[in-house]
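[[Encoded backbone]]
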Amino acid sequence: MSKSPDAFRTISEVADWLGVQAHVLRFWESKFTQVKPVKRAGGRRYYRPNDMRLLGGIKKLLHEDGTTIKGVQRILREQGVAHVASLSPSLDDSPSVSPPNDTVVPFTAASSAQPANQINMDLGEPGQAPAPIKPDISDQPKPQPDAMDAAPLMGGIASLAWNRAEYDDKLLHQIAPIAKDLRRWLDRVENRAAG
């Protein structure tokens, strides 16, 4: 059984009708003195049809037209409540945001073009998968490489940079944030060890 068009509505009913959260309506009430719902015991708000039309006009100005709060306040002052209320959708209209359903939306992958600010982390030749790491089950000690020649345990762009003999500006630009993070980490470790 639906309510009469002249019936008062609760804040949740008005929020559903406008497609906004209830806290948004309370915020608008604090910013627009013209919005005056009836408050009953316990602070429950009940909105009259005229309150709903005013809120509908405010929503249109803010969300659809991109007007600022100060701009809507100016329009209310200069052109009046009736003008803003006239911008509202009909009270008979369904909510502007449909209620959620249980439909699964298929995921579509982004285009294969790599964004300009993303770092390419591919370390091998195109089309080749990296060789799987096999666990070493022998008890024989491994030969230790010279400490300056051994690559530290790292992956991605850092390993790629470690294995290069020459550095271009693009690679240096890519590894700069990693170097800063590593320096901060080393400083923290040194500070903890010292104190």
Observations:
- The helical segments are 11-18, 22-31, 49-64, 69-79, 81-86, 157-162, 169-194.
